[in-house]
C-alpha cells in the first residue's frame, strides 16, 4: 500500500462502517482491474540485499524512478518511501524488507495491465541499472537470513515489526522476505461481492498451487513449494486465513465489519504521526475511550487504514483483493489477473466456478489451505487432485475471458494470458518444482544461479 487514506470525516455508528464498504459498488460497465506486484531487489555484483540509505540504496532508486516517470514522492518523516502517479494512476511503494511494489492503476482489461507492467519494468530498469540493482521474480528471498535483510524507514512498519512477534512466529519473515502478486476486482452489489468472495476464497489455494514460486530459504530448499504461503499460516491468526464465516448464511458487509472490528488495531495516524496502538480496539476508538489517545475518535481515514491491516486470503475493501499467489515473472503477473477476471467478471463463468467449489466443506477448504504450500497441485480435495481442479478452473476462466471479448491490436482476447498457467497444469509442475529441479541439477545445489535465472 503506497499511501494511507486521508479523510477526517468522523465515524460514529456501525452503519457508517458498513456504508464505507457498500460505497465500493460499481455498475458492471465500470468494472476495472488493479494489479499489484512486489519484487525483491539485490545488488547484481555480489547478490546482496539493497539497504535504504547510500548512493546506491532504495532511496536513490526511488529518486531515479521519480525522474524517469515524473511521479511525485511520498514522504514519511522526511524519507521518500514511495511515488504517486498522476491522478487515477498507479503508485510505487516499498515493503518492509525493501521489496519494490507497483500498485497498478484501475484498468479496463488485461491487455492494459500487461502494457502498464511492461512500461513500469522498463522504467524501473532504467532507474536501477546505474545503481547495479536487479530484481528477483521469486516469492521469497532465497539466500539472506531475516537478520541480514535491511529494514525500511516507514513508521507503520516499525509498529508492525514490534507487534508481529507477539502474535505469530513468522510475521517478520512475511514482512521482510516475501513477495506476492495481487489482483483487485470490483463488485456490483452486496450479493455480487458475496458470490465473488466465496468463489475466490475457495479457489485461493488453487492459485497458491499454480503460482508456487518460493522453494528456497537461507540458501537451500525449505521443504515447501510456496514457503510464502506457509509463512502466512503462522503470522497473526486474528487477521489472516480463509474467513469461514464468509460461507455462512447471511454473510455480507455487516458480518465483515463485525469481524474487522474484532481485529486488533496497529496504529492511528494523526497528521504525519503514527501513534502505536497495537492490540487496541477500534470500538474503543469510535467511543473515544482509546487508552493511548484519550478522547480521540474514529475517522474515515482510521477505518480505511484499519481495513488495510488485515490480511485474509481474500480481502474486502472497496474492491476484493486476491492474496494467495507468489510473485513470478511478467507473464505470471498478467496470468494472475487473467485467472481471476476470467472467473469473476462473466456471470456464466462465475456460476460455473461456484458449482466447482460449492460442495466443499469448511474443513476441506482449511485442509487444502494447510496442505497446498507443501504439496501444490498434488494436494487432494474430495478425492481429486488439485491439479485437476486447477485445469477445470482454468477452462472456466478461459470461457469467461472469451465471453468478455476484449481484444488487443492483434485481435487476441484476454485468454492468451492464461497460457503460462495452462502449461503448468499440463506439465503437472509449478515453477517452484522447476526451480528445485534446477537446484539439484544445473545449479549444483546452489541458489546463486537464481540471481541470474530468476530475475525481471
UniProtKB/TrEMBL annotation:
One of its GO terms (biological process) is glutathione biosynthetic process. The keyword ATP-binding applies. Pathway: Sulfur metabolism; glutathione biosynthesis; glutathione from L-cysteine and L-glutamate: step 1/2. It catalyses: L-cysteine + L-glutamate + ATP = gamma-L-glutamyl-L-cysteine + ADP + phosphate + H(+). Keywords: ATP-binding, Disulfide bond, Glutathione biosynthesis, Ligase, Nucleotide-binding, Transit peptide. One of its GO terms (molecular function) is ATP binding. The keyword Ligase applies. Pfam families: GCS2. Its EC number is 6.3.2.2. InterPro entries: GCL_bact_plant, GCS2, Gln_synth/guanido_kin_cat_dom, Glut_cys_lig_pln_type. It comes from the Bacteria. Homodimer or monomer when oxidized or reduced, respectively. PANTHER family: GLUTAMATE--CYSTEINE LIGASE, CHLOROPLASTIC (PTHR34378). Belongs to the carboxylate-amine ligase family. Glutamate--cysteine ligase type 2 subfamily. Belongs to the glutamate--cysteine ligase type 2 family. EgtA subfamily. Catalyzes the synthesis of gamma-glutamylcysteine (gamma-GC). This is Glutamate--cysteine ligase. It comes from Methylorubrum thiocyanatum.
